[in-house]
Amino acid sequence: MTNYLAVERALRSAAPHALLEAVRNTLVQFYGALAVDLLMADYSLRVLQPVTALPHTGQGLAVHASVPGRAFGSQQPQLEAVPGRDGGPDRVVAHLPVTVRGDRLGVLSVELPADSAAAPLVAELGQVASLLGHEIVVAERDTDVYLQARRVARLTLAAEMQWQLLPGRSCARAEYAIGAQLDPAYAIYGDNFDWATTAETLTLTITNGMGEGISASLLTNLAVNALRNARRAGIGIADQAALADQALYAQHRGKVHVASLLMCFELATGQVTAVDAGSPQLWRLRDKAAERIEFDAQLPLGMFEETAYAAQSFRVLPGDRLVCVSDGVYDTSSPAGERYGERALARAIVASALVPAADVPGAILRELADYRAADAADDALVVCLDWTGRNESGTAR
């Protein structure tokens, strides 16, 4: 653990752009590492990009066809044997997930002599990878290095605005796990998701700004920040919707609107209050059966002045999975003009039942991409929440 503390001191004192250099130097010095690389998951979650000289990164690795990808997907260390250099001793590369509170950032790959890669060392290096993840999240306030490393292509301006607005792509707590993804990742504009947690609640919101390109992104940005402002004032979700509605109407006078679904979960009981203000759909997977949870439809945010919103209630049980999708999923069409529809969506939800929450959005969006036309006009959003809940004593299951 003394070696771990040395790594921690080096990371905390490193310049924001130099975290990889700091962790590489200390792992070589204190752990006998032969090589150290950091791979960041790209925006589509399909490629792991090595952090190298900017503005370009090295050749990416496919998440679904590589050993580092298995570490990223399973969230477990993966060991890869490699032949020695110049006929020297065999070596092992430990691929370690870089994850912060369930948000999967990438993989730290550490090459070691084969005879030193014992389980205790790999476990300690896993802690180093977790520490590196926390430092990256903090460093991203002051450097673009890690954001640039996530790109296999240039983001549109609208997509840049949207990704900066998001809380993350996944998160986990004892009571729940969330995964979310947008598609096309490099050219999104109106779809968005947001979440926030307290000791007793989880608030989850889905928004879809009307329009295309930067105008849709600006509209969604206003809506999300209005909802956050109301939420941080400590008021309920019905009033959050009402205040966001007023902010949007004051700015645009009803010419554009934002479809939204707001939900607040009580962590102790699984009781959920919801406001359905538009087109996002909510589905529940329980006992291997997928069914849509329908609410009384209410007006999208910003359509009319001083709209009053009413919350509805339902309950989630331990083992439930909730999947929320935008109209870019269920209302998309094949090249022949056939709608994807609810039946196909239900099949996709059931088919991904054994997939972790963080991977469900990608699985559904990949199936959708195979179905719909290549030039589909709408962006698509999928958010998955797995509910664990608490037991009768009030502790997480």
From TrEMBL:
4Fe-4S found in the keyword field: no
Pfam families in the cross-refs: SpoIIE
Protein keywords: Hydrolase
GO molecular function annotations of the record: protein serine/threonine phosphatase activity
Domain of life: Bacteria
EC number of this enzyme: 3.1.3.16
PPM-type phosphatase domain location: 173-387
PANTHER family the record matches: STAGE II SPORULATION PROTEIN E (PTHR43156:SF2), STAGE II SPORULATION PROTEIN E-RELATED (PTHR43156)
This protein's name: PP2C family protein-serine/threonine phosphatase
